[in-house]
Amino acid sequence: xxxxxxxxxxxxxxxxxxxxxxxxxxxxxxxxxxxxxxxxxxxxxxxxxxxxxxxxxxxxxxxxxxxxxxxxxxxxxxxxxxxxxxxxxxxxxxxxxxxxxxxxxxxxxxxxxxxxxxxxxxxxxxxxxxxxxxxxxxxxxxxxxxxxxxxxxxxxxxxxxxxxxxxxxxxxxxxxxxxxxxxxxxxxxxxxxxxx
Length: 196
Known about the structure:
By secondary structure, the protein is mostly helical. It contains eleven helices and no strands. The longest helix has 23 residues, at 150-172.
């Protein structure tokens, strides 16, 4: 429903600010994982938690945006099919080492044993999602220990500004004048930078 979509978007904005993640990247992660939501029988809130766990695992591991994207695509395909194995498992284990560690910790096995479990079809969507949900508090703690870089801080600010603009526009339709003001600021900064 439209109300659920608004709630999900609001949560994605809030979580992106907390993580220092680009809201569109978090939204893409959610969108990639969403096809598995029905099969997993998860509420929107739990699906947002799975999304946050995946994004946070990439953040704390220092994965590149490309690595995170590739592994998320493979993870979502595995979850949507009902089991994480084969090519999907290999991509997640190679490009999402922290995800693999999360699964191993929550399943009480060594990371090397996960490959055998994947081959045997034991890494079902339910098993993977529940492991990620259980690991989320630990991932959040790890993320809180990371230094807030200028880039992450600016990304949080950008996400918060985007949410504010969306809310102001929804309430007043005033984004045109706000957009013009931002354009003027950007042009002034560009002129200033050219003079340096």
